[in-house]
Amino acid sequence: xxxxxxxxxxxxxxxxxxxxxxxxxxxRPGVVQIGSGERGVGAGIIWQTNGTILTNHHVVAxxxxxxxxxxxxxxxxxxTVIAQKxxxxxxxxxxxxxxxxxxxxxxxxxxxxxxxxxxxxxxxGEGWRVTAGIVSGLGTVRGSESDGRIPYIRSDVLLRxxxxxxxxxxxxxxxxxxxxxxxxxxxxxxxxxxxxxEWSSRLxxxxxxxxxxxxxxxxxxxxKGAIGLLVTGLAPDGCSDALLLGDILLDIAGEEVAxxxxxxxxxxxxxxxxxxxxxxxxxxxxxxxxLPLSAFERLAA
Length: 301
What we know:
The protein contains four helices and 18 strands. It is elongated. Helices cover 12% and strands 40% of the residues.
């Protein structure tokens, strides 16, 4: 015979419903709707009061026209993508606005299975809808060689297209995750807020002007889904003896580069006078060399 666990019933205060409604009302202005062309593409979080917006990389990766940020007060701003991290499915946008209501960030590293969470987003284009559930699992998935294993939060919060990039929040109204994708059933995945915070905190806002043209190419010999950057053009004022037409960039300082944006982002995290380790293919032969940033970008005099 097995003895049954004697568990006390879960107590919910009568005022909880009213308090939740008030909490949602306070949080909604910190969530934005992101559109491109004639359609809405996802949600975003006001990350900083100066107009920095956090969302998913896949929300902005295939935009069809300028990105537009819609606020709850009806204002609309055009956004610029300032940083992307495809392996984390994260992107930072910037709009010309200040004094915005940035959402508070919670301690996602201390999150436990069973904690109550809720999401705000725009499912099927319906603006600022709220769904709730519990954390059903915590785990990791394999990232790139430089990223190692990436943590994730799994919940039973109902998500639909239009929720991507929006916040997963705890009972205090703090962001503990960025909703990313839907698996089978109604179990949903979010990137922990501490992962997004650590990534965004490392970013350097230094603007990078490339002195080369690159094009993504598939590298099936290096594994399924492997991508490199083929050098297709070199500016006359660049450091032309460091890179050659036809070189294929694999990674820089251990960071994989999948397109011109990720190349700029990686370079921006280093001092302009730095020399970085570059892994590339030259004539089909793998090489690892140290190159100055002047091999890639036009530096200020």
